[in-house]
Amino acid sequence: MEPPEQQDPAPPARRARSVRRRHDREIVALALPAFGALVAEPLFVMVDSAVVGHLGTPQLAGLGVAAALLTTAVNIFVFLAYATTAAVARRVGAGDLPAALRQGVDGIWLALLIGAAVIAIVLPAAPALVHLFGASGTAAPYAITYLRISALGIPAMLVVLAATGVLRGLQDTRTPLAVAVGGFTVNAAFNATLVYGAGLGIAGSAWGTVIAQNGMAAIYLTVVVRGIRRQSGDGAESDWWSFLRPDAAGIRACARAGVPLLVRTVSLRAVGLIATAVAARLGDHQIAAHQIILTVWSLLAFALDAIAIAGQAIIGRYLGAGDGEGARAACRRMIEWGVVCGVALGVLVVAGRPLIGPLFTTDPQVRNALMSALLVGALAQPVCGVVFVLDGVLMGAGDGPYLAWSMLATLAVFTPAAFAVPALGQGLTALWWAMALMMVSRLVALTLRARSGRWIVTGAAR
Fold this sequence. Notes:
Elements: H1 4-7, H2 10-40, H3 43-53, H4 57-75, H5 79-93, H6 97-132, H7 140-151, H8 154-169, H9 174-197, H10 202-230, H11 237-244, H12 248-281, H13 284-320, H14 324-360, H15 364-379, H16 381-396, H17 400-423, H18 428-452
Helix pairs in contact: 2-9, 2-13, 2-14, 3-4, 3-9, 3-10, 4-7, 5-6, 5-8, 5-12, 5-13, 6-7, 6-8, 6-12, 7-10, 8-10, 9-10, 12-13, 12-17, 13-14, 13-15, 13-16, 14-15, 14-16, 15-18, 16-18, 17-18
């Protein structure tokens, strides 16, 4: 018989392997559909661009300005998805599904209120916003038309964000994928029909998007209502209808939880705007190459963000169940996934560099500016992998205030570094080293928080 000290390590080792395999299954089951849904969303704008582009250059230019404004108006409220995911997942982990659904309904009501406020601002301000973004005299009328019509779909877009957060919190990322693919298909069909069949021009493209977004919101609301009815006990009408009534206290709580994430998102978007402004100062070839790298960077971000979404749902569930050690173990495993995926994406970009330039441009000067800067973006991917994962972990833990302050600190680091690039006579590669510095700054802040364990607060609510 072997000595006891040689027998003891085996069961813990097997348990550790079993835990890792379980985490791997959970991450894959949540992340893959989430990635599909994330990629499907930008295709809305791509379809609009493809359809409108055949109407003429002024129409396409107008769409570009309006789409940028519309995307900004919606994406700064992405906390509706993130905060709802964390809050719902906690209550699922605590075994209180009715409370999870109630939390989700509060988030949806908040989305409707914000959407109504955004419409009230955008409709009268559309001409001023379009001119502020520098639309030409020929493109501005088309931009205003598209923006005003599309603004009518903003409440639906925000409802989609909140309802997506509900389903993610319920550990369901497949339904959002199905809805996103269906919405993309409907959008494409209505765009072609209304723009060319009905002869509505760019207005038809906007109406097609509004119809598709409202259809997606209706499907999400149907799914949520069905979930509520299943949880209504004896099925009495008054039970499930009471879930759907707006609760002022619950809506205020959702808003308070979302404010720090709103600060984080605005700070992150400020980084992108500053980088674009600096690239524009470097010259036409530099800004063109910068936009190509941003396109690649965004695609890579979708892959890494899918793991972060899985992290939000998994961490929230563990903490809601009171399993702080399980949350810590899941965090470690997701960091490993982030590193591996980051390395793989970086290698893919390095290998694909000779193909990326010709895919986007025939200008040799743009290609030259692109190559070395793109290499910097590729080298940053392992760092990005860990940053995205830890971002998701802390969101899942409801650690919004720390995310807000750390992102403000990162913005303070990045801004002087970025503006120093043209001041020192440097080019696009130096700007992307500043972007890499920004990611390293986020990595340091998030790693310190993760290692401190202060994010591990268990219970149905933080």
